[in-house]
Amino acid sequence: MLRTFTWAAATAALLLPAVPVPGLAPGNAEASAGRWTAQEAAAFWTPERMASALPVPDPPAPGAAASPAPGPEAAVPAVPAAPPASPSVSPSVPSAVAPASPVEPSAPASPAASAAAASAVPLPAPAPAPVLPSAPPGVGKDFDGIPVVGRMFVMKGSGAYFCTASVVSSPGRNMVLSAAHCLLGTDTRQVAFVPQYTRANPRPYGMFPVLRDGSGRSKVWIASRYRTEGAAKAATLDVAFAQVGPDSEGEEAEDVVGGNRLVTGATFNHPKVVLIGHPAPSPRPRVCVNKTTKFTSTDPGSPGSFLRIDCTGFPGGTSGGPFITHFDEDTATGDVVGVIGGWETGGPTADTSYSAYFGAEIRKLYQSAVAGVRAE
């Protein structure tokens, strides 16, 4: 199967401040003109609609007629979701693990017990649980997620869909990274990013709408060659950036959940990468840690070299999930060097994933997104 849903089978240099770069354009994501705020996004993307969303289908080949959506999201049974928690939102990067509560001693039952309690050495607070669950290299495991990674929800035709996305640091503190094939198409609309989504707690950090321009198109940047040549021929450009608006409290995404540093020009062979994605069947995200290697395609229809990682259990829905190096347990962020996508839109099996290489073209695409450049 392909990484996205198919209807036939159910210490490299950091980026410098951006400058306008011609020749790279946002994805042609049409949406109805008008405002698209966090409040409107939250009213549209109810917990039930989010729970019923399917992985984004693979895009058709250039010139091919798009396959009709199989039906509205109402045709998919909605899974009841627990009401979202309402954690306090701080402009600082939140800790991924809540601090442990101090141990409260019991009230003494007698003067002797009081004296004993007074002389007793206080018990230390239990150590916080690690952000990432323990697992052998290459073995994926469901977990509660981290704030910087979440689901990107989109409407296409009459269906509700999703991919994985993550916040990447930017001057505007409002940039989200995913795979291009997730956000491609003129019928892509009502796009919103939800950090650390789980079915039990669908909006722990609120919702960030992907902004629209004056003509109603979503502010999504995809290399123009990817749009014209298609997902196979231009697989090395399967990367998208999206500008999101503030949440309902007026806070930018990076101020709420932090952001990974975008790294370009690095090696293909990373000794330790944290891979995170949202598998379609699972109510929670999935994480895996392993090394990456270089994969060069021998298929003339999909040429290029890609990052490859062996991690079990990353099926449809995980497209756009970040490859993170130098992961910091304290901030739950790191350096992002790839996203699930590229060759075969992320890979033909769920146990090996691929990413476009983040080189000069991806750096220029990021710079275009930061500068707001839109080629006409």
Keyphrases for this structure?
about 375 residues, alpha+beta, nine-stranded mixed sheet, six-stranded mixed sheet, about 25% strand, globular
Task: Give a written overview of the molecule.
With 376 residues, this protein is α+β, with helices and mostly antiparallel strands. Helix content is 14%, strand content 23%. The protein has 7 helices and 18 strands. It has helices at residues 38-44, 47-52, 111-119, 180-183, 224-233, 253-257, 360-371; strands at 25-26, 54-55, 141-142, 149-156, 159-168, 175-178, 189-195, 208-209, 220-222, 240-243, 261-262, 273-277, 286-290, 292-296, 305-310, 322-328, 333-339, 352-356. The strands form 3 sheets. Strands 1, 2, 4, 5, 6, 7, 8, 9 and 10 form a 9-stranded mixed β-sheet that branches. Strands 3-13-12-16-17-11 form a 6-stranded mixed β-sheet, with no helix packed on it. A 3-stranded antiparallel β-sheet has the order 14-15-18, with no helix packed on it. Strand 12 (273-277) and strand 13 (286-290) form a beta hairpin. The protein is globular, with a radius of gyration of 22 Å. Residues 4-33 and 65-127 have low confidence and may be disordered.
